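User: Predict the full complex structure for these chains.
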Amino acid sequence: MVDSTTVLWGQTLAYTFYVLAIMAVMGWFALRVTQQGPTPAVRPGLFYAFVAFLVVLGISLHFITYYTIPWKPMDMHRADITPDKVFDIGVAGHKFQLPAETLQVACNDRVLFNVTSSDLTYGFGLFRQDHSMLFQMQVVPGHMNDILWQFDKPGVYSIRSTEYSGPAGVDMVVKDAVVVSCEKS
Amino acid sequence: MSFTETFLNGAQGAFKPATLTPMQKMILRFVVVGLVFYAFAVIEGMIMRIYQVTPIPVVPTVQFFAIMTAHPLVGIFGSTYAIVFGAFLFLVPFLMKKPLWSIPLANWTCGLLAVGTFTFWFAGFLSEYAPLYTLYWPLPADFTQFSLWGGTFFIVGIAIVMVGVVFFVVNIFRTITYTPAGWAPQPAGALLGSALGLSGLQAFFTRQKQDHLVSLPVAAIARGTVDTAFNAGIILFTGVLILVYMVAEIFGTSLKHSAVDALLYKNWFWWGLDLIADGLVLIFVAGTWYLLATLITGKKLFMENWARAALFIEMVVSWTVWSHHLMSDQAQPGILKLLSGEMVTAFELITQGLAFFITLATLWSARPLKMTFPLRFLLGGLLGFALAVPAGIMQADLGLNRILHNTQWIVGPHVHVAVLVGLTMTLYSAIYLLFPIVTNGARLYSEKLALFHFWAHLLGGIGMGAFMGMAGLQGMLRRSLYVNGEFNVYMILAALSGSLLLLAFLAFFYNIVMSLGLKGVIGIFTPSKLDTTDPVPAS
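Assistant: Here is the predicted structure of the two-chain assembly.
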């Protein structure tokens, strides 16, 4: 399954290419707009084509991600999917209250993390050992905050609050809290 | 001239404050206030950049977050609002060739922005009030973490700023619609309809061609001012709500936090805040690009009717776009995430893309152009938004937001590149263009310093955004601290880029002070001796 590392690399490549291209275009424009020479008028057709390009680009991005990023459709339809495992997690006083010291997950299981806050707005994110993010969501008091995730690789993840909840929230990290194992018992 | 003479009297002694009209003094006061608070924001930014590399022992963590709380508000209200409001209060009468409705009210706006910004900054600094600008309920009323009195004065400071904003809104719309003494009656309703785009909308559906009663830049200012007014209302209401909790606590009664729904509050807050971030900023910037392009080239704007329509669409988009901030809120209705969060946000790519294309096409129509400082900074501003808007569109996707939300990606390549490179360079372009007009021909002290200002600001702004973005893609969160050097390579490079921004500002500030002279700067704040409502002295 495509995971966040792959998606982030794709995004890095696409955006870097775009940045270099638009900087080159602006550099070229800055040079040419100061030079003598024939100045053909910008035709309205080019303008309309640019508008059409922006419309297609703006909308198609979301369709492309729907069909290429696996967690997007799963998140949108999570109410209709029966999870293999459910973890109910509480947050209060800048502390995560986990149902067990370590949350054990089997490979390819679809796991529902159901997180509730009894005081402030927090965040809930899973991070790899190299600090890169697997996923995150907001944890709003008085509301259900649930995320469904399918783990298809073994790994050990830390839980970290991804939302500012005051200076006391800086230390809201539970190291090695989720362990995904792919060995068959 | 010796250094001392230039420092006291300005470059070649060309700036004479006694020749300034009340309108010129008014705009120059706004610019001075804006630049002083920009200095606050840059210095605070550098402190935070250093803190992200290694915590500074004399700055406790809570003070770091107090700085982070005040920093964007000082930047937006104290600096950007001041410069933009001053410029527009000057430009609307200048472009409409009629007096400003009230110069005293404009000066009150300037004073209230200055006093209000200093009040909330000082309250935050002294009391370490640090719920961040997002104010996610019930954090601003969490008195176990934050000072009650500090918070009260912080909110009062914001309220003072908002009163100044309301004065600005009234002044702009009254100037567009009122009839000056001795003039033939002005068609107030028709002028307002043209400024807001209602007459254009009517003409589109009835297919009756109508002349526009107000110019395109004035229409842009009016439409952005609608968002400014809505935003002031939202912030004032939110401030009063927080104050109710604070005042009750002061009198010994703790109100129940759960009386306010945290998700509803979040929707309300972001609806209001996006009237700035996705409303007036984009509308004002597009309008300023159009004005600058036509002033620099002396040519008619390319595809002017499309530009007007895009400004109207942008205004409507800004009222319906807020949900892209709540894509990681699982309780937020999915339909809002899809329609408001993804689809409406995509319109910003279209409207800003149109403004980008129209501005470049207008400039192209007048080639060869001389690479003046207004043109140079305008191109920098265009590049800034060309970089920042697509970054924002990417994060406003349900799939990508899951791994980008609240990371340094959001605040680097999107927010800071948009604000520092896109918006600020556009403002610098306007300042360099208007400088000889509002100073009656003062000489710029050093072109070399202005050139350094341009390159240091451009490279510093893009560099800082890029390195923050790289850290974000590696998982670094915003509004957080990493004290074990997890992302130090990126943070050191971002801090070096930030120091370029600081140097750029210092060069600019020094250049302006040496251009006007110390006596000239003081002279800006004395009353004008000219009894005229004209923007510039009659020649």
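The first helix of chain A runs from residue 4 to 32.
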